[in-house]
Amino acid sequence: MKLKKKISTLQVLNNRSDECLFSPNPIVSQKRKELIIEQTLDQDRYFTSHKAMIASRDLCCRVFFDIHKYDSLVTPLAIQLNLVEFVELFDSKQ
Ligand SMILES: [Zn+2]
User: Fold this and answer.
1) Is 74 domain-assigned?
2) Cα(61) to centroid of ligand 1, in Å?
3) Reported pTM
4) Which uninterrupted H or E stretch holds 10?
5) Looking at the 3D structure of the chain, how many domains does it have?
6) Is residue 25 part of a domain?
7) Tens of pLDDT, residue by residue, the chain (94 residues)
């Protein structure tokens, strides 16, 4: 197990992306979507936004956070410790 010296925050996308898994027409099938969410919760992880993944950033999907923040282990912990940070996918400098 790798130990991080610096405390990192849980970064959550500020807005739902237009390719969100939780959108009415997600890019995967309904079954696949349920499986992904189930696996994510089973592993007590959070779901990384697809858009963020493409941009090589590890940002929690906003809708996952809103719906499942108390269903996983890592998200309630981050909330409890005040380590949640809402961020834009691309900062405005670009
Ligand atoms: Zn999303």
Assistant:
1) yes
2) 4
3) 0.84
4) strand 10-13
5) 1
6) yes
7) 666 667 789 999 999 888 899 988 888 899 999 999 999 999 999 999 988 999 999 999 999 999 999 999 999 999 999 999 999 988 655 4
